[in-house]
Amino acid sequence: MTKLTTVKKFRQIKPEIRILGIDDSVFIPRTKGKADIVGVVYRGGQWLDGIMHTKIEIDGLDATQKIAKMIKNSPHYKQIRVVMLDGMTFAGFNIVDIKELFQKTGLPVITVTREKPNFEDIKKALKNLPQYKKRWKIMKNAGETFKIQTREGEEPVYVQVAGISETDAEKILKKTSTRSNIPEALRVAHIIASGLAPQKEKE
Amino acid sequence: MTKLTTVKKFRQIKPEIRILGIDDSVFIPRTKGKADIVGVVYRGGQWLDGIMHTKIEIDGLDATQKIAKMIKNSPHYKQIRVVMLDGMTFAGFNIVDIKELFQKTGLPVITVTREKPNFEDIKKALKNLPQYKKRWKIMKNAGETFKIQTREGEEPVYVQVAGISETDAEKILKKTSTRSNIPEALRVAHIIASGLAPQKEKE
User: Fold this and answer.
1) 3-state secondary structure B70-98
2) Does the CB of B197 have a partner CB in chain A at under 8 Å?
């Protein structure tokens, strides 16, 4: 594999740029087993083009590899321009190495969270898990956190990036946050992933 | 239960009217087991508000009851104004009684298909299944099929209705078919339901 050393440059960001938004489904924390990951292909902030899914281990170490495989096996792969993640940790503390995900897929990656990540708290939590050092290294590998104001008069979001400049990430986030301060691909990925959780039987 | 004898009248159809679009997931025909049903709450033809799901028996007789229960248990129930179904048969020949679904939920029901249903072919197929007469009765209970031109210069769709006039159904279909000749709630329900099918493992 040729290592991608530069960031992807976006000369023009079309309103219908295809974004893949990724989130995880609800699961019972600190249990054994797998959790669903849902990927939603959105045309800018406008409409849904497709969906993909995979499973990763709760508190496991396979998120990066499984998500890369899900993306590359998708019929939408060639059309997607950017991957957005609802944070870096899925299914508990199964952390995505965003630089490696960029290397594996050739697609820039942007993590988006509503709260500023508190790395001291995360560090403490990671210490309770096997392979703490490896996890912490993946976490640190994501680099600096940027604050981005996606919509006027609304709460900002916090992002980390791989394979894309902060400036381009900001432009894409602003263009695709059409219904809330979160890019539409991620807002919808969250609704779908949480809506698919097993439902309680009620009569 | 008070029987609803009249149709719901829509004095005004807001562009953001909440529509529930329902479709089934891919399954292996004529096998035993259950298939997933996905319901998508859409604001008119504009954006996704929520999702719900249930399971029904392949070639079973529980579609009406399970879908009614899914709708009534959803936190979106009170906001939904119309239910749209991708045809009348789900998970093989598990047929929805649209008049009964209207009675159970109080929500008007519109079935939408791209092809004109061929009832002679359906009748023949139903004869291979247990409780043929019951199934055929449910099918006939849906009444007349109407042809509706949702978008200028595109293929028409075919609908059957319960609890709503043909005129109101036509208005709602035209207003919500924003990306194709199919109302957005159904287009997206189809993408989500088929995208959730188990994926082949590829390396």
Assistant:
1) HHHHCCCHHHCCEEEECCCEECCCEECCH
2) no
pLDDT average per 10 residues of sequence, chain A (203 residues): 75 92 86 91 94 95 98 97 97 96 97 93 92 95 95 96 96 96 97 78 41
pLDDT at B22 over 60: yes
B195 touches chain A (CB under 8 A): yes
This prediction's pTM: 0.90
- Tell me if chain B has a CB within 8 Å of the CB of A197: no
Q: What is the pLDDT of residue B195?
A: 87
Say whether residue B179 is in contact with chain A using an 8 A CB cutoff. yes
Contact A196 B195 (CB under 8 A): no
Give one DSSP letter per residue of B90-146, joined into a string. ETTTEE--HHHHHHHH---EEEEESSPP-HHHHHHHHTTSTTHHHHHHHHHHT---E
Q: State the smallest CA–CA distance between residue B125 and chain A in angstroms.
A: 32
Show Cβ contacts of residue A21 under 8 Å, excluding neighbours closer than 6 positions: A39, A40, A42, A84, A86, A183, A184, A185, A186, A187, A188, A189
ipTM: 0.86
Across the interface, whether the CB atoms of B52 and A195 are under 8 A apart is answered yes
pLDDT at B8 exceeding the cut of 80: yes
Q: How many CB atoms lie within 10 A of CB A65?
A: 15
Region B40-50 average pLDDT: 94
Nearest to A199 by CA among B59, B98, B108, B37: B37
**Per-residue pLDDT reduced to its tens digit, B66-81:** 999 999 999 999 999 9
Q: Quick one: which of B2, B14, B23, B10 has its CA closest to B164?
A: B10
How many Cβ atoms are within 10 Å of B10's Cβ, its own excluded?
18
Tell me, yes or no, if A47 comes closer than 8 A to chain B by beta carbon: yes
Interface test with A, best of B18, B71, B188 (most A CBs within 10 A): B188
**Counts for chain B of helices (H) and strands (E), in that order:** 6, 9
